[in-house]
Amino acid sequence: MDADQAVAVSGREPVSGVNGVTPLPTVIEVPLKEDELVDAAKEAGESLTEAAAQASTDEERARVMAGLSDTPRLTESGIAPEVLAKLLPDDEIVVLPRVSHVAGGFGYRFIKRAFDVVSCGAALIILALPMAAIALKIKSESAGPVIYAQRRVGLNGKVFEVYKFRSMYTDAEAKGAQWATEGDPRVTPFGRVMRKTRLDEIPQFWNVVKGDMSLIGPRPERPAFHDEFCKRIDGWEQRLLVKPGITGLAQVTGGYELLPKEKALYDIEYIENRGIGMDLSVVWKTIRTIFTGDGAR
Asked: Where are the domains of the chain?
Protein backbone atom coordinates (compact mmCIF):
# COMPACT_ATOMS: atom_id res chain seq x y z
CA MET A 1 0.00 0.00 0.00
CA ASP A 2 1.38 3.44 -0.89
CA ALA A 3 1.19 6.58 1.22
CA ASP A 4 -1.99 7.82 -0.48
CA GLN A 5 -3.88 4.62 0.45
CA ALA A 6 -2.51 4.65 3.99
CA VAL A 7 -3.86 8.16 4.54
CA ALA A 8 -7.26 7.32 3.07
CA VAL A 9 -7.72 4.40 5.44
CA SER A 10 -6.24 5.96 8.57
CA GLY A 11 -8.49 9.01 8.37
CA ARG A 12 -5.65 11.36 9.39
CA GLU A 13 -3.40 13.64 7.41
CA PRO A 14 0.15 12.32 7.11
CA VAL A 15 3.00 14.06 8.86
CA SER A 16 4.92 16.41 6.61
CA GLY A 17 8.64 15.78 6.66
CA VAL A 18 8.35 12.02 7.27
CA ASN A 19 9.25 9.99 4.16
CA GLY A 20 8.28 12.98 2.03
CA VAL A 21 4.56 12.46 2.60
CA THR A 22 2.40 15.53 1.90
CA PRO A 23 -1.16 16.26 3.15
CA LEU A 24 -3.90 14.52 1.15
CA PRO A 25 -7.69 14.10 1.45
CA THR A 26 -8.71 11.98 4.42
CA VAL A 27 -11.87 10.25 3.21
CA ILE A 28 -12.50 6.92 1.52
CA GLU A 29 -14.46 7.67 -1.62
CA VAL A 30 -15.09 4.07 -2.69
CA PRO A 31 -16.97 1.85 -0.20
CA LEU A 32 -15.06 -1.24 0.79
CA LYS A 33 -16.29 -4.63 1.90
CA GLU A 34 -15.71 -5.68 5.51
CA ASP A 35 -12.74 -7.96 4.79
CA GLU A 36 -11.24 -5.47 2.35
CA LEU A 37 -11.45 -2.71 4.94
CA VAL A 38 -9.73 -4.84 7.57
CA ASP A 39 -6.91 -5.75 5.16
CA ALA A 40 -6.52 -2.14 4.05
CA ALA A 41 -6.37 -0.96 7.66
CA LYS A 42 -3.65 -3.46 8.49
CA GLU A 43 -1.63 -2.39 5.44
CA ALA A 44 -2.06 1.24 6.47
CA GLY A 45 -0.80 0.37 9.95
CA GLU A 46 2.27 -1.33 8.49
CA SER A 47 3.01 1.74 6.33
CA LEU A 48 2.69 4.09 9.29
CA THR A 49 4.84 1.84 11.48
CA GLU A 50 7.57 1.84 8.82
CA ALA A 51 7.33 5.62 8.54
CA ALA A 52 7.71 5.95 12.32
CA ALA A 53 10.82 3.78 12.27
CA GLN A 54 12.39 6.07 9.68
CA ALA A 55 11.40 9.33 11.39
CA SER A 56 14.36 11.52 12.28
CA THR A 57 13.03 12.88 15.60
CA ASP A 58 10.93 11.62 18.50
CA GLU A 59 8.32 14.28 17.75
CA GLU A 60 7.88 13.10 14.15
CA ARG A 61 7.73 9.49 15.31
CA ALA A 62 5.05 10.34 17.88
CA ARG A 63 2.94 12.15 15.31
CA VAL A 64 3.08 9.22 12.89
CA MET A 65 2.19 6.75 15.63
CA ALA A 66 -0.78 8.95 16.53
CA GLY A 67 -2.02 8.25 13.01
CA LEU A 68 -1.48 4.54 13.60
CA SER A 69 -3.49 4.62 16.83
CA ASP A 70 -6.44 6.12 14.96
CA THR A 71 -6.36 3.65 12.06
CA PRO A 72 -9.84 2.07 11.98
CA ARG A 73 -10.04 -1.60 12.92
CA LEU A 74 -6.33 -1.91 13.64
CA THR A 75 -6.09 -1.18 17.37
CA GLU A 76 -9.78 -1.93 17.99
CA SER A 77 -9.87 -5.45 16.59
CA GLY A 78 -6.30 -6.42 15.81
CA ILE A 79 -5.58 -8.38 18.99
CA ALA A 80 -2.48 -10.49 18.66
CA PRO A 81 -3.30 -14.23 18.84
CA GLU A 82 -0.71 -14.83 21.57
CA VAL A 83 -2.39 -12.18 23.72
CA LEU A 84 -5.77 -13.89 23.43
CA ALA A 85 -4.17 -17.26 24.13
CA LYS A 86 -2.86 -15.97 27.48
CA LEU A 87 -6.11 -14.27 28.44
CA LEU A 88 -8.37 -17.10 27.33
CA PRO A 89 -6.41 -20.31 28.00
CA ASP A 90 -9.48 -22.55 28.27
CA ASP A 91 -10.33 -24.65 25.24
CA GLU A 92 -14.02 -24.67 26.10
CA ILE A 93 -16.36 -21.76 26.81
CA VAL A 94 -16.20 -20.62 30.44
CA VAL A 95 -19.61 -20.26 32.09
CA LEU A 96 -19.94 -17.62 34.81
CA PRO A 97 -22.56 -17.68 37.58
CA ARG A 98 -25.73 -15.75 36.74
CA VAL A 99 -26.21 -12.46 38.58
CA SER A 100 -29.13 -13.11 40.93
CA HIS A 101 -29.89 -9.42 41.49
CA VAL A 102 -28.34 -5.97 41.24
CA ALA A 103 -27.85 -4.67 44.77
CA GLY A 104 -28.42 -1.05 45.74
CA GLY A 105 -31.76 0.71 45.84
CA PHE A 106 -32.67 4.28 44.92
CA GLY A 107 -31.22 5.73 48.14
CA TYR A 108 -27.88 4.04 47.61
CA ARG A 109 -27.70 5.10 43.96
CA PHE A 110 -28.52 8.72 44.89
CA ILE A 111 -25.86 8.83 47.60
CA LYS A 112 -23.33 7.10 45.33
CA ARG A 113 -23.89 9.58 42.48
CA ALA A 114 -23.72 12.59 44.80
CA PHE A 115 -20.49 11.29 46.34
CA ASP A 116 -19.05 10.65 42.86
CA VAL A 117 -19.72 14.19 41.64
CA VAL A 118 -18.62 15.98 44.81
CA SER A 119 -15.49 13.91 45.48
CA CYS A 120 -14.25 13.75 41.89
CA GLY A 121 -15.08 17.39 41.16
CA ALA A 122 -13.18 18.47 44.26
CA ALA A 123 -10.28 16.15 43.38
CA LEU A 124 -9.88 17.75 39.95
CA ILE A 125 -9.58 21.17 41.58
CA ILE A 126 -7.28 20.09 44.42
CA LEU A 127 -5.04 18.04 42.14
CA ALA A 128 -4.71 20.72 39.44
CA LEU A 129 -1.10 21.55 40.33
CA PRO A 130 0.02 17.92 40.81
CA MET A 131 -1.61 17.09 37.45
CA ALA A 132 0.39 19.89 35.82
CA ALA A 133 3.58 18.48 37.35
CA ILE A 134 2.71 14.99 36.09
CA ALA A 135 2.07 16.40 32.61
CA LEU A 136 5.47 18.09 32.55
CA LYS A 137 7.19 14.89 33.68
CA ILE A 138 5.44 12.82 30.99
CA LYS A 139 6.34 15.36 28.31
CA SER A 140 9.98 15.49 29.41
CA GLU A 141 10.36 11.71 29.37
CA SER A 142 8.90 10.76 25.99
CA ALA A 143 7.27 12.28 22.92
CA GLY A 144 3.52 12.13 22.50
CA PRO A 145 0.34 13.43 24.13
CA VAL A 146 0.11 13.83 27.90
CA ILE A 147 -3.49 12.63 28.13
CA TYR A 148 -5.07 10.20 25.70
CA ALA A 149 -8.60 8.97 25.14
CA GLN A 150 -9.44 5.32 24.64
CA ARG A 151 -12.80 3.74 23.80
CA ARG A 152 -14.33 1.57 26.51
CA VAL A 153 -17.61 -0.28 26.99
CA GLY A 154 -19.78 1.04 29.80
CA LEU A 155 -23.25 0.70 31.31
CA ASN A 156 -25.62 -1.34 29.12
CA GLY A 157 -22.98 -1.61 26.40
CA LYS A 158 -22.62 2.13 25.75
CA VAL A 159 -19.20 2.93 24.31
CA PHE A 160 -17.47 6.03 25.67
CA GLU A 161 -13.99 7.54 25.76
CA VAL A 162 -11.99 7.16 28.95
CA TYR A 163 -9.17 9.58 29.73
CA LYS A 164 -5.80 8.62 31.18
CA PHE A 165 -2.33 10.01 31.60
CA ARG A 166 -0.13 8.37 28.98
CA SER A 167 2.06 5.79 30.71
CA MET A 168 3.34 3.99 27.59
CA TYR A 169 5.46 4.85 24.58
CA THR A 170 3.51 6.09 21.57
CA ASP A 171 4.18 2.91 19.56
CA ALA A 172 2.88 0.64 22.34
CA GLU A 173 0.24 -0.93 20.09
CA ALA A 174 1.91 -0.91 16.72
CA LYS A 175 1.09 -4.61 16.45
CA GLY A 176 -2.52 -4.28 17.60
CA ALA A 177 -4.38 -4.20 20.91
CA GLN A 178 -2.38 -5.55 23.84
CA TRP A 179 -3.22 -6.53 27.41
CA ALA A 180 -1.30 -4.78 30.18
CA THR A 181 1.00 -7.12 32.10
CA GLU A 182 3.32 -6.80 35.05
CA GLY A 183 6.74 -5.53 33.94
CA ASP A 184 5.27 -4.47 30.57
CA PRO A 185 8.18 -3.21 28.39
CA ARG A 186 5.85 -0.76 26.63
CA VAL A 187 5.56 1.29 29.83
CA THR A 188 7.81 4.33 30.32
CA PRO A 189 9.91 4.64 33.50
CA PHE A 190 7.61 7.30 34.98
CA GLY A 191 4.66 5.34 33.60
CA ARG A 192 5.61 2.49 35.92
CA VAL A 193 5.37 4.83 38.88
CA MET A 194 2.00 6.15 37.73
CA ARG A 195 0.54 2.71 37.12
CA LYS A 196 1.83 1.36 40.41
CA THR A 197 0.22 4.23 42.34
CA ARG A 198 -2.70 4.66 39.88
CA LEU A 199 -1.84 8.28 39.21
CA ASP A 200 -2.49 7.58 35.51
CA GLU A 201 -6.19 7.21 36.37
CA ILE A 202 -6.61 10.77 37.72
CA PRO A 203 -8.08 12.20 34.46
CA GLN A 204 -10.90 9.67 34.80
CA PHE A 205 -12.34 11.83 37.58
CA TRP A 206 -13.75 13.84 34.67
CA ASN A 207 -15.40 10.68 33.30
CA VAL A 208 -17.08 10.27 36.68
CA VAL A 209 -18.30 13.88 36.77
CA LYS A 210 -19.67 13.44 33.22
CA GLY A 211 -21.56 10.34 34.27
CA ASP A 212 -19.74 7.80 32.09
CA MET A 213 -18.27 6.10 35.14
CA SER A 214 -18.53 5.82 38.89
CA LEU A 215 -15.72 5.96 41.41
CA ILE A 216 -16.34 2.29 42.30
CA GLY A 217 -17.40 -0.40 39.84
CA PRO A 218 -16.10 -3.02 37.38
CA ARG A 219 -13.25 -1.69 35.26
CA PRO A 220 -14.46 -0.97 31.69
CA GLU A 221 -12.85 -2.97 28.90
CA ARG A 222 -11.98 -1.94 25.37
CA PRO A 223 -14.51 -2.98 22.67
CA ALA A 224 -12.06 -5.38 21.04
CA PHE A 225 -11.40 -7.29 24.27
CA HIS A 226 -15.03 -7.10 25.38
CA ASP A 227 -16.23 -8.70 22.14
CA GLU A 228 -13.68 -11.52 22.37
CA PHE A 229 -14.45 -12.19 26.04
CA CYS A 230 -18.19 -12.36 25.29
CA LYS A 231 -17.48 -15.11 22.75
CA ARG A 232 -15.45 -17.25 25.16
CA ILE A 233 -16.84 -16.33 28.59
CA ASP A 234 -20.58 -16.92 28.92
CA GLY A 235 -21.95 -14.20 31.19
CA TRP A 236 -19.15 -11.68 30.67
CA GLU A 237 -21.69 -9.06 29.58
CA GLN A 238 -23.22 -9.10 33.08
CA ARG A 239 -20.50 -6.65 34.11
CA LEU A 240 -22.42 -4.01 32.14
CA LEU A 241 -25.37 -4.10 34.56
CA VAL A 242 -23.79 -1.26 36.58
CA LYS A 243 -21.60 1.71 35.73
CA PRO A 244 -17.91 0.93 35.36
CA GLY A 245 -15.54 2.38 37.94
CA ILE A 246 -12.12 3.92 38.27
CA THR A 247 -11.38 1.22 40.83
CA GLY A 248 -13.22 -1.90 41.87
CA LEU A 249 -13.27 -5.03 43.98
CA ALA A 250 -11.26 -6.99 41.43
CA GLN A 251 -8.55 -4.31 41.25
CA VAL A 252 -7.98 -4.07 45.01
CA THR A 253 -8.28 -7.83 45.56
CA GLY A 254 -6.28 -9.18 42.64
CA GLY A 255 -3.49 -7.84 40.47
CA TYR A 256 -1.84 -8.09 37.07
CA GLU A 257 -2.08 -11.84 36.89
CA LEU A 258 -5.87 -12.07 37.21
CA LEU A 259 -7.44 -13.64 34.13
CA PRO A 260 -10.62 -12.04 32.71
CA LYS A 261 -12.77 -14.90 34.02
CA GLU A 262 -11.34 -14.32 37.51
CA LYS A 263 -11.92 -10.58 37.35
CA ALA A 264 -15.50 -11.21 36.26
CA LEU A 265 -16.17 -13.30 39.40
CA TYR A 266 -15.13 -10.37 41.61
CA ASP A 267 -17.27 -8.05 39.49
CA ILE A 268 -20.31 -10.30 39.93
CA GLU A 269 -19.68 -10.40 43.67
CA TYR A 270 -19.63 -6.61 43.72
CA ILE A 271 -22.81 -6.26 41.63
CA GLU A 272 -24.75 -8.58 43.95
CA ASN A 273 -23.43 -7.11 47.22
CA ARG A 274 -22.59 -3.48 46.53
CA GLY A 275 -23.47 -0.94 49.17
CA ILE A 276 -22.00 1.98 51.05
CA GLY A 277 -19.96 -0.33 53.29
CA MET A 278 -18.41 -2.24 50.38
CA ASP A 279 -17.72 0.98 48.45
CA LEU A 280 -15.94 2.53 51.43
CA SER A 281 -13.91 -0.67 51.82
CA VAL A 282 -12.81 -0.50 48.16
CA VAL A 283 -11.95 3.20 48.53
CA TRP A 284 -9.80 2.45 51.58
CA LYS A 285 -8.01 -0.43 49.85
CA THR A 286 -7.44 1.78 46.80
CA ILE A 287 -5.88 4.50 48.95
CA ARG A 288 -3.66 1.85 50.53
CA THR A 289 -2.69 0.67 47.04
CA ILE A 290 -1.64 4.21 46.09
CA PHE A 291 0.97 4.13 48.84
CA THR A 292 1.99 0.47 48.66
CA GLY A 293 1.34 -0.49 45.03
CA ASP A 294 -0.16 -3.81 46.13
CA GLY A 295 -2.92 -5.04 43.84
CA ALA A 296 -2.50 -2.19 41.36
CA ARG A 297 -3.58 -2.86 37.82
From this structure: 3-69, 94-292
